[in-house]
Fold each of these.
Amino acid sequence: MNIDIIISADDIKPEKILNKTILIIDMLRATSVIVTALYNGCKEVIPVLTVDEALNIAKKDRDKYVLGGERNALKIEGFDFSNSPLDYDKEYIKGKSLIITTTNGTKAIKRSIGAERILIGALINAKATADKILKLNNDLVIVNAGTYGHFSMDDFICAGYIINCISENTSINPTDIAKTAQYIYKNNEDIVSFIKHASHYKRIKELNLKEDLKYCCLKDIINIVPEYKDDIIRV
Ligand code: 3SL
Ligand code: MG
């Protein structure tokens, strides 16, 4: 299996994703939120790029839709939830349609339209994601959402862990960057000691969201793999 990595949402090029399986990773925190919400019974997730777009969809039926996401890592005015995965408890999210807009994660998803398949992954569902990719048996491009167009250590090591899981079950042909991600993971299996140096980890910590960090850094606690298709993410 050929495996490549794109380091940020801003670096996605149509020719790089054509006919490929894409895995979107924004472990801090957008893809961790999406995986958690769907695991907790959310019916579907609708990623959008702007706050206005989100509000316009939600106003059609305020019982059906919940609004979630962030700007500058903070809850958006008029929204129901922030971009903390811990907000998305069964009692609030079960049976609802979540409209989400975030700075980097939803952008990475939307910019991957045109790929063969678009999967949503994080550390919390890493092994399940690797298994699904093995079943699809297509070339893989991992899209790291990154942070404001820049490389993110957190998404990179998460990609490395997933590549490592895949490599345990099939032979892989990684690009240099994909090989480096796996190497970084293998030398830092205690992910937190590596991620704590990431700028976005520090930002979330400064906001006193330590429980979010703890949760997003757990490996393999969820076994679903959401997929984006026809504007909607479902399991
Ligand atoms: O950029 C994003 O998509 C967010 O996940 C960033 S934050 O962790 O919510 O600040
Ligand atoms: Mg991020």
Amino acid sequence: MIYDVVVIGAGPGGYVAAIRAAQLGLKTAVIEKSKTLGGTCLNVGCIPSKVLLHDSSVSSDFPKMMNRKTEVVSGFTSGVQFLLKKNKIDWIQGTALLKGPNTIDVGGKTVEAKNIILATGSAPVELPFLPFDETQILSSTGALALKSVPKKLLVVGAGVIGVELGSVYKRLGSEVVFIEFLDRICPAFDMDLSKGLQKVLTNQGMVFHLSHKVLKAKGTTLTVQGLSGEVTFDGDAVLVAVGRRPYSDHLGLQDLGIEKDSKGFVQINNSFQTSIPNIFAIGDLVDGPMLAHKASEEGIAVAELIAGHSPIVNYMAIPNVAYTDPEVASVGLTEEEVKVRKLSYKSSVFPFKANSRARCIDDTEGFVKILAEEKSRRILGVHILGPNASELIAQAALAVQLKATADQLADTCFAHPTLSEAIKEASLGLFKAPIHL
Ligand code: NAI
């Protein structure tokens, strides 16, 4: 049989692409080498980390929360298996190797396809002098499967993975010390969010050493170049969270002449096509933020393209969230990006201290910051540090997606008392004035 579409990789990019392709009447298969579906997000990423972030804020029973994490993950992975079955998608278990524009080898068996979607995702970056053993030198995968809580956890890299997992272990009693190369944490976020988050995490007892570079390591002892010379840090475990790299090796890309850049990202055109037009690539494997929901949007779009539709992924409207306490969430351009583009803009900040609901629930840390273009008054970016920021950002994403102006957002009626009113107040602050400040 020749499939219309074969997807390689069953993460949130790949399995979503497969479901959409099947919905559009295309005979589809997914090739996945792991025993479970769902990729990094479901098995060793977004989902298990959110279980631990939730449970560690309400309990200190570590074995119990690890068990619940396993249960939640297995519920989701079998849920994906059910969805594939429901949509009559074949799951071919094994490792795919591209043999030609229409041919894939899976453990000696040949699979043929009119269209191939590469969705193999990414893997944690390893530092050469700190190879992962997943018991003491941990990637995010190891940090999500520890048997006990380390007394002192060194975290190399204060990005999203670092601050989320650092928060989990801080709540469980670890001493948590960050060593970050840059002079700020979470560089993907607007600087005001990074600064605000660092302040609250510091108040929670986490320690940050910024502009520090790890030079070498002996076990869990790190030699670090600090601002005024070399310093040594000792820990019981080290989490290395210095980014992820596209998982584009061992796929047979080179033999087919499919181009990658120097970091391993597969090169595609605006239609997700690689240098071989019927082989597509999406998600962490290609340029852009390494986010599950970005991969899913691309998965839907590529399936629709193959089916002859004209989908559009709006990269301006992809939210980015860190599930710390308080949460951080953002959509659109950061102030730094607005400046780089030399746009003339206005910025408005509304603190949760002045929001009635935040005061009712005694959770007033943080603020909403909105940027709008001065002339068109179009919303350029919304940046939130505060309670439920991960949920609040959805309405901001809608505003950016629909190209709303500051006035349209400010003129919308928000229920009282809600945290969302901070968004209305911040948008009022752009060209009118906030009421409660
Ligand atoms: P990241 O890119 O967010 O942060 C890595 C940090 O490590 C940066 O601050 C960087 O300056 C620092 N760094 C790099 N090399 C270093 C070195 N040698 N020494 C010290 N610091 C160093 O990457 P992270 O946290 O590993 O996450 C990987 C990807 O996974 C990101 O793209 C992220 O967006 C995604 N992710 C998303 C989550 C979410 O949506 N909530 C949760 C976790 C990860």
